[in-house]
UniProtKB/TrEMBL annotation:
Membrane topology according to the record: Multi-pass membrane protein
Family matches, as Pfam families: Seipin
Protein name: Seipin
Entry superkingdom: Eukaryota
Keyword Membrane: yes
Subcellular location: Endoplasmic reticulum membrane
GO biological process, one term: lipid metabolic process
UniProt keywords, alphabetically: Endoplasmic reticulum, Lipid metabolism, Membrane, Transmembrane, Transmembrane helix
Transmembrane spans: 51-80
Record's GO cellular component terms: endoplasmic reticulum membrane
InterPro entries: Seipin
Amino acid sequence: MGLALEFLLNLFDPFHIIRRHFWNPFKTIAANVFDHFMNKTQDKVSTIRDVILRIGFVAFMVALIIWSAIFMYVTFYYAYMPAMSHTRPVHMQFKTCLDQGGPCSFPHAHVSLTKKQQLLMMGQAYRVQVIIDMPESIQNQELGMFMVCGELRDQESYLRGHACRTALMKYKSHLIRTISTWSLGPLYILGLKEEHERIYVEIFPRYLEERNHPITDVYIEIQSHKIQFYSVTLQITADFTD
């Protein structure tokens, strides 16, 4: 009797049949498909995450190697490579004529390169030049050629080098000076430009520093009584042509 009643209820209950034979299998299949899709998605996410982590690690290592190489190069450069240039101001002195006024002796100066035992790199070639900043005055234009001499001495004041070179202001005709004055007149009036010329006199074109006698002092002399200048500068530049 109970079995017959259950059969009749199932027969006249179509929703139970639909749930049992259609919905439940569909739900099971959908759940399996969803789980499979999620597993594949998680695998792909894990793979992408691993790739990103590997790329980031490689990029970090490459950046670390590059910065380490730069640091080692800079350390080596400043530890072993000589300085490119040494510049010192030259304070010229001269004796004044009591009867005529003006200089009675050639302008000369002593430049101390360093208080230590050495400044320049041993075996390195250097160019030693004197830079004279001269006004374009009538007296300098009529000065003509003059000599600039230099002496290099070590810590014990022994002479290690002596040379003299000629120098001359660049010639400018009256026409060129007039055109330059008229064209640059506003700059001269506003103080943005001065009528001066900078002369570079190379005393020693290639001086090699000796190991046992490093240079510590330089003596400069301008052999002219009539020269006028604003400033004089000594510049020692390393020559890396070899």
